[in-house]
Each structure stands twice: as structure tokens, then as C-alpha cells.
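# nightly structure sweep
# worker-07 picked up a monomer target from the shared queue
# config: single-sequence mode, recycle default, output format = C-alpha cells
# input follows
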Amino acid sequence: MLLVPCPHCGPRNSADLRYVGESVSRPDAESATPEHWRRYLYTRSNPAGWLRETWYCRLGCRRFFTVERHTASNQFRTPVVPGDKPEAKA
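# output follows
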């Protein structure tokens, strides 16, 4: 069982959530080339380390949230609540 820290509901079983995927920024629709869209839609980094992910709390608050997860150890960092500014890392 993987406990995912929902910023609104608290720790939830991953079965209560939906994994949306790696958080990537969407390209500008006005200036993006087909190559930019291809990378946005199909290419993911898949590192063995920290990765920003988006999850959906489908059986709790029904909100999307972003969290950092270490892909090798499944440790989570504090989730980012939408609208909050990320803290500066030392």
C-alpha cells in the first residue's frame, strides 16, 4: 500500500487516488511547433530520483494536487497546494 499525502484530506491510500502523471508545463499554443507538442504529449523523463507528479483525489476531496515522489523509494515531499508559491530550496 502506498500512502499519498493529499494536501486537503491528509494521507490517502493510492487506491483512493488517480495517478495523472508527471507534471510538465503545457507549451504555448501560439508558438509551439509540432515537435514541442510531441514532447509534451509523449516524452517523460522517468528518473530514478525525485519527480513532480499530479494526482487526483477521486474518493476524497475530488481535487487535483501536485506532489514530489522519489521513484526509487516512494518517499513523498510535502504536497503543493494550488495557488501556493513553492518554497525556495537551499
